[in-house]
Amino acid sequence: MSDEKFKFPTEVVELPSKGLVYPEDNPLAEGKIVMKYMTAKEEDILTNQNYIKNGTVIDELLKSLIVSKINYNDLIVGDKNAIMIAARILGYGKEYSFKYNDEEVMIDLSELNHVVFDESQYTKGKNEFSFTLPTTEVTLTYKLLNHGDEAQIDKEVKGLKRLNKNASPEVSTRLKHMIISVNEDNDRKSIRDFVDDHFLARDTRAFREHLKTTQPDVDLTFFPENGEGDQVTIPINLNFFWPDAQI
């Protein structure tokens, strides 16, 4: 399709969430966005050493490619993954090759499917879900993390690691940002205390399994053709967008 306003070819990208998780006044509630094709400007972004160093190169690329007037921070992780796949296809085609067990693997990115999620657990326009833990019978209210949340989590984790280089706070920090309330108590200190001291391992496992039913995403897994081993996750890095980058 051609967009007269922006004077460059564009494509409509369907979001895995179908827009259900966004407030009705949010443009993302339409369940789709418009993206432009990659140009030399975006290749400059891909090779920007400052972006590469601070880990923001992919986000800066996607921001440049998205034509729709959205707040990038609002994008839930699964929808951002779909936009990332679309960006690669629009920029360098649908075929993507990478090494797996010293063998070259070729994937057709256009054949990747959206993860099926349970829409019955959604209240349209509301990013809020409920789950009762099987062991303690504590009821959690939680949200799906968006890009803004991920940025805050990354900043917090880096701060914690500066205080304790041996710390590995990624999992607990994500849970603290995801959970909205514990037994209807939405006090942030109470939530943090619960995650640190009362969230049993068997309940966290059950919660992670439950999340698979509510989180929209793109299925980035495949089974090797030789049939050996478990399913493998498609590697995503700068080479995903520009194989010649050799990074």
Give a description of the structure:
With 247 residues, the protein is an alpha+beta fold. 37% of the residues lie in helices and 17% in strands. The chain has nine helices and ten strands. The strands form four sheets. It has a three-stranded antiparallel β-sheet with strand order 1-2-3. A three-stranded antiparallel β-sheet has the order 6-7-8. A hairpin with a 2-residue loop joins strand 4 and strand 5. It is globular. The two termini are 33 Å apart. The model has no long low-confidence stretch (mean pLDDT 89).
Structural key phrases:
3-stranded antiparallel beta sheet; 247 residues; globular; 37% helix; 10 strands; alpha+beta
With helices defined by DSSP (H or I, 4 residues minimum), what is the helix count? 9
Quaternary structure type? single chain
What is the helix/strand order?
EEEHHHHEEEEHHEHHEEH
Poorly predicted runs are: none
Alpha-carbon Rg, integer:
20 Å
